[in-house]
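Title: Comparing notes on inverse folding

I've been comparing how different people in this forum approach sequence design from structure. To keep things fair, I'm posting one structure and asking everyone to reply with a full sequence. Here's the target:
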């Protein structure tokens, strides 16, 4: 009995997935390095400067961080083409080829529209638009007259207790807290855009806008119909009066 338990435990702990081989598996390994072991040795020829095998090399091609070109922080994001299986750069891609929810690219739909139909199930990042606003210089100095209606971001900072007491020996190099900076050349603070508020209201109440547009269209149709009937009747009445007047004169003359 203990032997069976140990074998079962080792089977569970040392479980290995069943390998599957397809006809296109060699093509994927040679072209896109799919299915290669991450523990394979590093290619020495690539480290020396050039590997004659290129993408067909069975060993790893690791770029040196000192000699590689700067990517501008792009290698901290997951490649969106790799997520769909469409990245053709392989190991030479500037982005990450791994599933990491903390390093996913930004959701374009949320960035453009302010909301995402996938909600919390979206795998891409939803960045708050308020975080993109520049800091308010008036608030950084200590007070902003517009308060929450300011169009810029109000960032709270911890004030240096030594500066608050009257003197900080570290001066501008202080790391204990913020030192207020006074400036007389600041621009006047601006309010949040009213148009943006109207757009937010329309996004919150789209059904009201649809009902309002439907009522306006109904009123226009009613006005156009009344004008059409009135104009037709007036023209017909005028023509009719002219005809009857002519007939009346003719009858009067004949009579």
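Reply #1:
Here's my take.
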């Amino acid at each position: 009995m203990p032997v069976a338990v140990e074998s079962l435990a080792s089977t569970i702990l040392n479980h290995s997935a069943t390998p599957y081989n397809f006809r296109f598996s060699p093509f994927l390994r040679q072209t896109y390095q799919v299915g290669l072991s991450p523990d394979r040795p590093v290619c020495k020829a690539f480290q020396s400067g050039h590997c004659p095998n290129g993408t067909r090399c069975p060993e790893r091609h690791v770029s040196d961080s000192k000699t590689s070109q700067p990517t501008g922080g792009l290698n901290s994001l997951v490649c969106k083409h790799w997520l769909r299986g469409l990245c053709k750069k392989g190991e030479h891609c500037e982005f990450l080829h791994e599933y990491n929810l903390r390093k996913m690219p930004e959701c374009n739909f949320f960035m453009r529209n302010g909301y995402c139909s996938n909600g919390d199930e979206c795998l891409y990042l939803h960045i708050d638009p308020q975080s993109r606003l520049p800091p308010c210089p008036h608030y950084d100095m200590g007070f902003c007259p517009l308060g929450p209606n300011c169009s810029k971001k109000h960032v709270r900072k911890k004030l240096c207790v030594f500066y608050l007491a009257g003197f900080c020996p570290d001066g501008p190099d202080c790391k204990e807290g913020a030192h207020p900076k006074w400036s007389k050349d600041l621009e006047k603070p601006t309010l949040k855009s009213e148009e943006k508020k109207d757009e937010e209201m329309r996004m919150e109440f789209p059904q009201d806008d649809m009902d309002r547009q439907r009522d306006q269209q109904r009123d226009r149709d009613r006005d156009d119909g009344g004008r059409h009937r009135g104009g037709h009747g007036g023209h017909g009445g005028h023509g009719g009066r002219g005809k009857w007047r002519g007939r009346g004169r003719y009858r009067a003359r004949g009579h």
